[in-house]
């Protein structure tokens, strides 16, 4: 329905409502001026269950029209000050609308399409996997370097960040992946010393951290996109600082801090490539299954989770969520194509 047609329909409805109310008012006034008539005995018989002038006797189309006007007013109030449009349907057609033909940027509703594409392409059992690897087996509890290999998990978080999220009504109870659990598994594997430090590996996706058309405000509010990111890509133990410049290095730094807190001797963190053609897996951690990740993305409107899922769509199903078999980092463009398909 065009905007002009909808406006004409609204005007007709208003004229009908005014006319009916005027007639009802006139009849009520005439009734008030009638001379009283002595009551006559009435034969027993059925009586009206609903008084003649009860609101319940107003024709349903009038009730619907008044309700539509009230709904429109409430929606206009709710969207005041925003660039917004709405169309409300019922089984009989359009109930009310505003700016239905005005093109607007769809914004976070696009996350619904990303979620559908992820479920279709990756499947509900999909989990992100983050690994801790070494070039050789540990000796006497020591590995020269520990390689933290990102699998794309957007919900890796420190204990401080998890506590902060659980204290916020908007994010409490939503899925997270505890980086502390990975630290505990590393120590459970007998590691007590990593003299060469932890090296973050961030090669699952390409190195484009922000899409070219993102505004400065978006770049300040969303952490950099990457295959190895902790605390949404923000600095500080709880992720309350500014955006990090190198998400892989930041992740290695946070894991270093957690391991040192558990008594492990760890050298300075860094970033780099895989340790060898056949690395030794020391420990690993998996995310919650995909439906829980999508719940977090949609409930918290998490932009970074959405962007990483788009990259993951571009990666396609890899071997055990490792870097794709063709060793080509995934891109946002490839993920967008997968979602469209």
Gist?
It contains 10 helices and 11 strands. It is an alpha/beta fold and 341 residues long.
Can you characterise this structure?
The chain is of the alpha/beta class and 341 residues long. 39% of the residues lie in helices and 12% in strands. The chain is built from ten helices and eleven strands. It has helices at residues 3-33, 60-78, 110-122, 159-166, 179-188, 216-221, 247-261, 290-299, 303-315, 332-340, and strands at 86-90, 93-98, 129-134, 146-149, 156-157, 177-178, 193-194, 198-201, 265-266, 270-271, 280-286. A five-stranded mixed sheet has the order 10-8-4-3-11, with helices on one face. Strands 1-2 form a two-stranded antiparallel ribbon. Strand 5, helix 4 and strand 6 (177-178) form a beta-alpha-beta unit. Helix 1 crosses helix 2 (60-78), helix 3 runs parallel beside helix 9 and helix 9 packs across helix 10 (332-340). The radius of gyration is 31 Å and the shape is elongated.
Q: Rg to the nearest angstrom?
A: 31 Å
Q: Could you say which overall geometry the principal axes of the C-alpha atoms support?
A: elongated
Order of helices and strands: HHEEHEEEHEHEEHHEEEHHH
> How many DSSP-defined strands?
11
Unreliable runs, pLDDT <50, ≥5 residues?
Answer: 318-326
Tally the helices: what do you get? 10
SS content category: alpha/beta
Across the major sheet, the strand order is 10-8-4-3-11
The proportion of strand residues reads 5-15%
């Amino acid at each position: 329905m065009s905007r002009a047609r909808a406006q004409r329909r609204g005007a007709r409805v208003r004229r009908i409502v005014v006319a009916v109310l005027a007639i009802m008012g006139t009849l009520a006034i005439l009734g008030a001026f009638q001379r009283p008539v002595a009551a006559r005995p009435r034969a027993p018989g059925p009586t009206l269950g609903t008084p003649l002038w009860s609101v319940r006797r107003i024709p349903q189309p009038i009730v619907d029209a008044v309700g539509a006007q009230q709904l429109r007013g409430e929606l206009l109030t709710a969207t005041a000050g925003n660039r917004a449009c709405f169309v409300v349907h019922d089984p009989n057609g359009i109930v009310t609308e505003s700016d239905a033909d005005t093109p607007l940027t769809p914004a976070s509703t696009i996350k619904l399409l990303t979620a559908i594409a992820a479920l279709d392409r990756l499947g509900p059992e999909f989990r992100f996997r983050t690994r801790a690897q070494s070039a050789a087996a540990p000796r006497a509890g020591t590995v020269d370097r520990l390689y933290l290999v990102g699998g794309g998990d957007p919900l890796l978080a420190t204990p401080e960040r998890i506590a902060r999220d659980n204290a916020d009504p908007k994010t409490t109870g939503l899925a997270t992946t505890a980086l502390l659990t990975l630290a505990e598994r590393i120590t459970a594997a007998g590691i007590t010393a990593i003299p060469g430090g932890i090296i973050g590996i961030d090669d699952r996706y390409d190195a484009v951290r922000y899409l070219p058309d993102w505004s400065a405000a978006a770049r300040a509010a969303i952490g950099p996109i990457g295959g190895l990111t902790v605390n949404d890509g923000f600095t500080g133990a709880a992720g309350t600082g500014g955006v990090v410049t190198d998400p892989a290095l930041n992740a290695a730094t946070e894991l270093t801090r957690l391991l040192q807190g558990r008594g492990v001797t760890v050298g300075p963190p860094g970033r780099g490539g895989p340790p060898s053609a056949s690395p030794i897996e020391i420990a690993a951690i998996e995310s919650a299954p995909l439906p829980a990740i999508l719940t977090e993305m949609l409930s918290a409107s998490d932009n970074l989770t959405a962007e990483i899922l788009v990259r993951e769509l571009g990666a396609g199903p890899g071997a055990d969520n490792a870097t794709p078999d063709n060793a080509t980092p995934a891109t946002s463009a490839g993920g967008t194509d997968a979602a469209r398909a």
